[in-house]
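Amino acids appear as letters; backbone shape is given numerically. Here is one record.
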Amino acid sequence: MAERAIVPVLTGPTATGKTELSLRLGEEFLIEIVSADASMVYRGMDIGTAKPSPEERRRVPHHLLDVVLPSQPFSVADYLERAEAAIAEIWSRGAIPLVVGGTGYYVRALSEGLHELPPPHPELQAELWRELEERGMEALLAELKASSPADARRVGRNPRRLVRALEVLRRTGVPPARFPRRQPAFGYQKLILWPEWAWLEPRIACRVERMFAQGLVEEVAGLLRAYPRMPTALQAIGYKEVAAYLRGEYSLAQAKEAVFRATRAYARRQYTWFRKEPGEPLYLPWGGEEA
């Protein structure tokens, strides 16, 4: 395994065109793509995640897509283990692994290492998801911050990371930041697409409209029939809001607006996250027809 080889990373806010650019690079060079998207790991969650299509995957090999069922747990530690194995395998074939995706926590775990936490506890996480719905994010963030301001800063307003951090804290009495850190297996060079907000926001709106036109409501309805219990996967943007529409809590127009607002807020959080990315990343001004 070429442990000192440098792995290129293509990341940035949602809807910037990372998939399109990575496909073009993959057709130009001997590249295989390792996804860094926390929702694309789930089978059947295709439209709402803007997952590369089967045709696109035939054009360029992809890894870390469709890894688990929506009802199954999947942690960042699971991602790290599988992604590092995929990177090593790609190098062994003489190809170049290109990490592509906007889940900053996955990118950070690969490049900076990860605290070695105990395995997830699905029952306790399910309780925390219910508590999050009932009490709200601020109350749970305050609990975490009281024990570990560093973990509170790290999770930000990401509900999945918040639930995981509190699960560890409540089970062990020790916050995640105090666990030993596993060192990364490879070095990474990150290219971060950095568009102007005025360019990105209309793209987000177009993406949301396209997802609903492609059948997002039908996709979510089918997933709910097949997997009545999928507490983590259902928190993905688009799926949570459409599930609420199917329960009668939103009109369709309200669901679309909720997905747009949630995606826009997520993109703003990604700007904040990637602005502080360690490891001397390269920020590429982005926008226009080329994206």
Summary: The mean pLDDT is 93.
